[in-house]
Each structure stands twice: as C-alpha cells, then as structure tokens.
Amino acid sequence: MLLAAMIVGGFSGVSSAGQLSEMASAQELIKQLKSIKSIHSTFRQWVQDAKQASLQDVTGTMWVQKPGQFRWDTNNPYPQSIIANGEYIWIYDEDLEQATQQKLDKHVGNTPALLLSGDPSMLADSFSISAYLYDDTKEWRFDLKPKGEDSLFELLRVNFKNGKLLDMYLEDALGQTTKIEFSNIALNSAIKQNVFTFDPPANVDIIKDF
User: Fold this and answer.
1) In sequence order, what are the residues at sequence separation of 6 or more whose Cβ sits closer than 8 angstroms to the Cβ of residue 192?
2) How far is it, in rounded angstroms, from Cα 129 to Cα 126?
3) Taking the domains of the chain in order of start, what are their residue ranges?
4) Is residue 140 a contact partner of residue 2, using CB atoms and an 8 Å limit?
C-alpha cells in the first residue's frame, strides 16, 4: 500500500525504490500525524490467531482528539467502550457489567491509539520506523517496531492516503494479528468534549487499576 518521485527527490536517505531511511521514515510519519488534530470514523476489526483462525470480527466507531483523548466503541456481539480523557482511560465491558479505570500510559507501545492522539515527535524514541511509498496507489505504509521489551505488540503497521488514515495492523509475540480498516472518516472536525467523558452506570462494578 504507499509518491515515489517526490520522496526520492526530497530525501537523500532512500535505501530502495519507494523505501525511506529510518530517519526520513520517522520525519514523514511525524508530518502525517501532525496534520491530524481530530478523527471521527467507523471501523471494522478482525482478530486472528497464529494459525489465522478467526477470533473476532466486529464493527464500531472511533473518535480521536489531540492531545490524548480518544474513544473506541465496538458493536455487538462484543459491545465495549475504551475512553481516554488525556489523564485516565476507562475500559467498559457492557456484557460483564464491569468498568476498569487506569492511568493513561503515555507509551504508544502499550496503548497503540496514542499513535493518533499523542505527541508524534516522541515516536522515534520508542520505535524503529520504516516507511514505504507505493507509486501505483500513492499510499504510505509505516512499520513501527518497538525498541523496548515491555510492548504489547511486535509490529504496528499504519497506512495513509492523501493524509487520511486507511488501516492499522498489529502483530503480537504469539503471532496473533489485528487488522482495522477505517471508513467514513471526518478529519479535523469539531468533536464534543462529552464524547471523552465516561460516567459508569449504577449497576457496573468499578475496578481502579492505578
């Protein structure tokens, strides 16, 4: 998936056709992410185990607002909400009638959604980044591999086209993969602040994990 003529001319660090050096890759990813102030979109998410057996196939809605705010709602049959207000993150499982509150981890390696809502200039500190540009589709692909050992995933891949997020792919140490495709994207539009507020229902068990 990813403007080769422009990039080859603009970066001396191109290591092969369509691929940038690590420094140039980080710079290009930062540029892409800095243009994003907010996102509202729908998504479809597939999860497979190491043998490519389907574990989950769900749809939902995502909201992102910089800095540090996001909401991720999945629909039936696995209704769940993940809501962050910049300081805390709530994970609400409707079926279990349970809500967990945690301090928002500022490391993308532990909370991939922070790739979109966090400070992009810090990414190179935590990741080795490779960027690829595809001549035929004019899409950017970025592969992020965590430098630390405490990350929840081994590879995070994100694709952009014309400044819009297309999809994300994650792979963990056990070979489980998650593919997320985004659609109906509204970029840099106003989002009401109450979207990022969670008031637990009266019948919900609350777990504070901090």
Assistant:
1) none
2) 9
3) 4-191
4) yes
18 versus 73: the higher-pLDDT residue is 73
Which residues pair with residue 179 across a beta bridge? 46, 169
Distance of alpha carbon 44 from alpha carbon 204, whole angstroms: 27
DSSP E strand boundaries for 49-197? 54-65, 69-74, 80-85, 88-93, 98-103, 127-134, 139-146, 155-161, 164-171, 177-187
**Count of C-beta atoms within a 10 Å radius of residue 144:** 26
The tokens describing 97, both together, are 């009638």
Q: In CATH, what is the architecture of 4-191?
A: Clam (2.50)
Q: Please tell me which residue, 5 or 33, carries the higher pLDDT value.
A: 33
Q: Residues for the chain: how many in total? A: 210
Across 167-190, average pLDDT:
94
CB 157 within 8 A of CB 143: yes
Residue showing tokens 């980044």: 129
Condensed to tens digits (0 to 9), the pLDDT of residues 48-106 reads 999 999 999 999 999 999 988 999 999 988 899 999 998 999 999 999 999 999 888 76
Q: Which amino acid is at 175?
A: G
Residues in CB range of 117: below 8 A, 6 or more apart: 64, 65, 66, 67, 68, 69, 70, 84
Task: Count CB-CB contacts under 10 A for residue 198.
Answer: 20
Amino acid at 90: W
Angstrom distance (rounded) from CA 209 to CA 102: 5
Burial status of residue 184 (CB atoms within 10 A of its CB: 0-12, 13-18, 19 or more): exposed
